Amino acid sequence: MGLLIEGKWVDQWYDTKATNGKFVRSESQFRNWIYPQSQYQANEPTHFPAVAGRYHLYISLACPWAHRALIFIKLKQLDNLISISCVHPDMLSNGWEFKSDETFADANIAAGDPLYGFSFAHQLYSKADEGYTGRVTVPILWDKETHTIVSNESADIIRIFNRAFNDITGNHLDFYPDDKVEAIDTLNNRIYNTVNNGVYKCGFASTQEAYEEALIPLFDTLDFLENRLENSPYLFGEEQTEADWRLFTTLIRFDAVYFGHFKCNLKRIVDYPNLIGYLKRLYNTPNIPDTVNLQHIKRHYYYSHDTINPSRIVPVGPNSFFA
Ligand SMILES: N[C@@H](CCC(=O)N[C@@H](CS)C(=O)NCC(=O)O)C(=O)O
Question: What residue intervals traverse the membrane (predicted)?
């Protein structure tokens, strides 16, 4: 685990000393946008046009943020327009690596870097910006034409996928409808701070106080969501929205990883009747099971975070999502 400093790779774990033991996630730095041809302005440096075959998505099958992007490829039927490949689940001193390894072959997503044959994800960041300083994270939405990163922010990538390619695919499903924008943003904000990022705040805390400060709001929000789902299949009623999918990628990892490895252990998701029903409902959406790789998920967290799990032993259970 490390980061790039002025384009050079430096191996170091998250520094929580300056923040009283709290984990503070850094902001993504590539925040460009893909627009449909009708809205694309060539003279705007942050604009990229929606063109079939032009973009590549680099993901980790273990990572909940990258998982969102993969899910939107499926929901919006973008498989034939955007190519995808994945990193190896082990994120060690070189950060995310591209290597093929039969043990971790996924049935649907190829491993490696088909564009440049790079060994490390940090080489993509240096290619995009030779003086880049910051973390090397996935997902990475890459432009094959100008050889740069369009976006490394999953929240933006799923909104790009929600709209930009509709004219090409004919898929007009809308997971961020105009009349719900404010309500979705408000709920996303709570779920991001206390659940999606909340589990990381628990897991990467380096003081008892910082851990407990993250744990309590995490379970407050899970209790609140359990209540909200009492009479409703999804967070905003009958229709799925992006809020559901942003929550899904954390919930599906919870009992297998966050409960044990990140010490988020007041309750499991299976202990919440509405949340577990909701998780199964989302999981059973067409093409979604193909996006969930429990082997990568468990291996990545338990094997990569040796400050938390120095033995690198990967627990055997649970070996299904809902048990
Ligand atoms: N805000 C980013 C966060 C992405 C992120 O932190 N991804 C993790 C994997 S789960 C990562 O690549 N971490 C590497 C690092 O922090 O060095 C997003 O949502 O896209």
Answer: none
pTM flag (> 0.95): yes
Q: Is the pLDDT of residue 323 over 60?
A: no
Query: What pLDDT does residue 100 have?
Result: 87
Instruction: Please tell me whether residues 126 and 227 are part of one structural domain.
Output: no
Backbone angles phi and psi of 238, in degrees to 5: -80, -25
86 within a domain of the structure (yes/no):
yes
202 is catalytic: no
How many domains is the chain built from? Answer: 2
Q: How confident is the model at residue 291 (pLDDT cuts 50, 70, 90)?
A: very high
Determine the atom of ligand 1 nearest the C-alpha atom of 28: 1
Alpha carbon distance 30, 125 (integer Å): 10
Residue 9 inside a domain? The answer is: yes
Q: Are 107 and 290 in contact (CB under 8 A)?
A: yes
State which H helix or E strand residue 317 sits in.
none
Q: Using the 3D structure, point to which of 135, 169, 203 is the last residue of a domain.
A: 169
Q: What percent of the chain has pLDDT over 90?
A: 92
CA of 168 to the centre of ligand 1 (A): 30
